[in-house]
Amino acid sequence: MELLGGLEIGFETAFRLENLLYCFIGVALGTAVGVLPGIGPTATIALLLPVTFNFEPVSALIMLAGIYYGAQYGGSTTAILINLPGESSAAVTAIDGHEMARKGRAGVALATAAIGSFVAGTVATLIIVLFAPPLASVALTFGSAEFFSLVVLGLIASIALARGSTIKALAMIVLGLVLGTVGQDTYTATPRFVFGVRELYSGINFVSVAVGMFGVAEILRNLEDEKTRKLITHKVSSLWPSRDDFRRMAGPIGRGTVLGSALGILPGAGHVLASFGSYSIEKRISRRKQEFGHGAIEGVAGPESANNAAAQTSFIPLLTLGLPAHPVMALMLGAFIIHGIPVGPTIINDEPELFWGLIVSMWIGNFMLVLLNLPLIGIWVRMLTIPYRILFPTIIAFASIGTFSLGLNPWDVFMIGFFGVLGYVLIKLGCEPAPLLLGFVLGPLLEDHLRRALIISRGDLTTFVERPVSAALLAIAVIALALAVLPAIRRKRDVVFKDEDEA
Amino acid sequence: MLAARRALKDILAGAIFIALGLAFALGALAYDIGTPLRMGPGYVPLVLGGLLAALGAGIIVKGFIAGEGEEIGGFEWRAVILIAAALLFFGLTVRGLGVIGALFGTSLLASLARSKTGWREALVIAIGLTALSVAIFIYGLQLSLPLVGPWIPLP
Fold first, then answer.
1. Which residues have a Cβ under 8 Å from the Cβ of A141 and sit 6 or more positions away?
2. B interface mutation test: which of A63, A175, A461 has the most B CBs within 10 A?
């Protein structure tokens, strides 16, 4: 009954006219940046955070969330039409989706992706409604020791599922954590690592870190070699799949939704893993194996459902534990902080309008996305013709003025440059930027809970292993780390991510 | 020699982590370290800095055992310098020149980061982009930033 009450508040909030409008702006922007290769949802949300400063908190979060799941839709459009994933999770869609487009079935492929995403998004939203409240009530019993261990687990788990070298990912996390200590210490107000610069007393702005590592570093990489794009626009005419198509996509959508919902909750690249996992499952159980890679509709329906479901359920750890599962969620956490709303298990009870409004808006947003993507596909396709030589200076200009407006602090803009160059160099040396951002956002939280837990336990470090929940969380973290380093699993994981590089 | 080349990526990455880790650890010594019970402001950065340096060393060792051996590829100096300059320019001039001047300079520098973009094209992009940004941020989103700053004397 409590659930129904919550949903009622949610519908009331989400259907307010201004929130519908912000939801629409969010998903439209999300589709746009998803379509455009070279700018992803992480950089976009970071860029738009300052803009949402004056909004009502719930409107701001509805819009930012819309950008995120909207980008999952847009990414598949690019993957299908030009065989270039606009979004990393759409890489696998490109395999069969682009083949379908080459055979003149681009419209059907796009429709399949949209239908699969909508079904998955609806189911995943229901899963959030069912699972978030009980999880939050468990988390309400947590003390500082448990939260410390939980953050450690979150950070470790995020690299166990990520790609690339484990030790480099660990180093990136620690670098993020240590960068998070810049600024005034919360307990003694001592300014740390500020070099006398008053503007750094409040710490490095995480918007600068995100825009630098994900926006500017990406631009620098793209300027290295500009890819030529081959666009397939002819015959995006017949959108509606045939009866046979519908029969073939039903199974993959169902399985993809389940897999994606489960993987989305895990920290790390859950949605990328989900789409790859779904593709290999469909290929294995299909009776038409030979069609995969040559335009099998199952190869579009499954992965697209999986990545959209995962995109939705990745909100669960954020909304219940205050723990972001990946960089976009870290930015959402930042959005909550900017609006002065403490994120964590208390949010359901303290801010019911925000919690339920956000969830219901996701379902509305998914519906809007179907309308936006199918009848209006022509507009998005035309966007692909924006040349990169105009696109990237636009990102730089918007980043400068947007970040500056956040606190009228020139150092926020300087830091974009610093992190852009640092990110570019580190990415070239084989280090992924995502763990650094997670570490940076969670660093202050980690230090705070560590120091508080030790004050409560009178300096006894064993408090972390004596409290059962904390001990269990740390044990899982150790196991996750061991698994990430273990050779057998590494090899399998590398295979999964290798496909991504080739696609 | 061969092992060193195969490990080059890891050696460089490790060196960066060691340098940053040591810098933070040594810097932390200037603050009160405290005890585990009452941690001072220097405690956590000292531990994390040390850990970062240790991980950096681990990456170098790993590089010699199992280096990735991939080419690093060229370093895009022009783009790095011009993009960094564009952002620096904005931060340094936005208060003095105002939004219009700062945006124009930033867009111009950024456009030129792409080696194939010529001067004339960059000028056109910069003018268009300045107008677009002012329209969106100042008129659309109502940010209260001065269009023209005190460095430019208005008649």
1. none
2. A175
Q: Are A157 and A423 in contact (CB under 8 A)?
A: no
Residue of chain A nearest B9, judged by CA positions: A429
pLDDT number for residue A499? 47
Q: What is the pLDDT of residue A236?
A: 61
Q: Tens digits of per-residue pLDDT, A187-202?
A: 888 888 878 787 788 8
DSSP per-residue string spanning chain B: -HHHHHTHHHHHHHHHHHHHHHHHHHHHTTS--B-STTB-TTHHHHHHHHHHHHHHHHHHHHHHHH----------HHHHHHHHHHHHHHHHHHHHHHHHHHHHHHHHHHHTTSTT--HHHHHHHHHHHHHHHIIIIIIIS-----SS-TTS---
Length of chain A, in residues = 503
Coil, strand or helix at A342: coil
B25 HSE (CA, 13 A, CB side): 16
| pLDDT exceeds cutoff 60 at B99 | yes
* Cβ–Cβ gap B73/A420 under 8 Å: no
- Give the model confidence (pLDDT) of A235-275 as tens digits: 566 677 888 888 888 899 999 999 989 888 876 666 777 88
Instruction: Give the 3-state secondary structure of residue A192.
Output: strand
End-to-end CA distance of chain B: 67
A441, A330 Cβ separation under 8 angstroms: yes
Name the percent of chain A lying above pLDDT 90. 18
ipTM: 0.93
pLDDT value of residue A456? 87
On the question of pLDDT at A229 being above 70, the answer is no
Sign of the alpha-carbon dihedral angle for A48, A503, A387, B104:
positive
- CB contacts of A426 in chain B (<8 Å) are 13, 16
Are B114 and A187 an interchain contact pair (Cβ–Cβ within 8 Å)?
A: no
What's the pLDDT score for residue A418? 95
Closest CA to A115 of A211, A228, A246, A227: A246
Q: How far is CA B57 from CA A94, A483, B10, B22, in A?
A: 39, 22, 10, 11
Q: Could B76 and A220 be called an inter-chain contact, meaning their C-beta atoms sit closer than 8 Å?
A: yes
Backbone torsions φ then ψ of A185, nearest 5 degrees: -70, 135
Please give, rounded to a whole number of angstroms, the shortest distance from the CA of B20 to a CA of chain A: 8
Alpha helices in A314-409 (DSSP H): 315-321, 327-338, 347-350, 352-373, 377-383, 388-407
For A343-371, what is the mean pLDDT?
A: 89
